[in-house]
Amino acid sequence: MSLKLPAPDDMASPGPESGAPGSGAPDAAAPEGAAAPASTPAPAAKAAVPGAKVRLRALDGLRLVAALMVCFYHLSFRGSAGWQRSPLHVFPHLSHVSAYGPLGVQFFFIISGFVICMSGWGRTVRVFAISRISRLYPAYWAALVVVTAVLYFLGERTVSRTDFLTNFTMLQTPAGAERVLGVSWTLWAEARFYVLFAVAVLWRGATRKRVLGFCALWTVAALYADSSDQEFLKVALMPEYAPFFIGGIGLYMLRRYGHDLLTWGVVASGFLLGQHYAVKGLVAPPGAHAAFERSATVVIAAVAAGFAGVALVTLFRPVADVDWRWLTTAGALTYPFYLVHEILGTLMIGKLRAHTGLSDYEVLAVTVLAMLLLAYLIHRLVERPLTPLLRRLLTKQANGLGAARPARESA
């Protein structure tokens, strides 16, 4: 399982959705559900939080928390390959906590809903699309190449050449190709959200009425899709993830316009439906035999904590106005860390166990730190130079396409 995403451009996180999701400072880096560089400052808003800043550094920090949840799930609960035995035996206590790590993905989607609504506000579809592409692809391409190269040189199994090339499009999931990066399935969910939001909201310009209408229609349509046997509708409308994106959008509307019953209703419906799908997806049904049985109560509490956490860091002024720059740096690492941690982390665990005398907990700690260091290198050496370069090239190309057509030649 995996997650996140980058953060959007106007956000306080350097990553794809704001990030992502997966999620940075202007032109910084940081799925998603995580901030991309800001090319157009967010319009002045009737913020629910007086004096609120465009950059929400605490939200950057929350993105890293979500990424670490997914990481510990992969490395200390699900990943038996590196440990050569079940992590439930390696980490008898930690694994019982990290079993709930997949919810980090849903947390990313809540953050993504907030950040994409914020970063897209006042932008055209063209500008929005360029910002997302330039934010998401450089780190993704770098992770794709690095992971494949490491697998190849270590003699591990890699995907076929044709699937490897297909992965560069980030459309390997709908194309039916094998994924190089296991967590990249969440980027496909983020991409569908971007398309829905761009077509339904940004195409005619974001307004409060249009955004709230979009949330209501998407909720109803997603529920219909879930109850139907039409696979296309389920893929397009994502009923199991829609409540989290919608809840995040609702939280941004509260920040922008203040508290009102209708908007809180959007957030509440996102939580109520979201916890249903989270329990359905993570809790084994009665009678099923699972190595570890998750508690529905804990899943519900964790989803509630995710919504409450995003609300706290965006609507509660003392937290929303936190200006600790290291949080932005942490957010910038989220997206590349999310992309590389699963496969490379598992390989590193195996090597450390075979060639060092470190304890299992020390191996886990060293591996996580190493993945954060690699994420920092990708951010500094790839994202920071290539994101603005790609954005400039795409903007120039888009401007060229939009230029006036040459006068027709005279007969």
UniProtKB/TrEMBL annotation:
One GO-annotated biological process of the protein: lipopolysaccharide biosynthetic process
Comp. bias intervals (Low complexity): 12-41
Transmembrane regions listed in the UniProt entry: 62-83, 103-124, 136-155, 185-203, 210-226, 232-254, 261-278, 298-319, 326-349, 361-382
Residue span, Acyltransferase domain: 58-378
Keyword tRNA-binding: no
GO terms for cellular component: membrane
Annotated keywords: Acyltransferase, Hydrolase, Membrane, Transferase, Transmembrane, Transmembrane helix
Region (Disordered): 1-41
Name under which the protein is recorded: Peptidoglycan/LPS O-acetylase OafA/YrhL, contains acyltransferase and SGNH-hydrolase domains
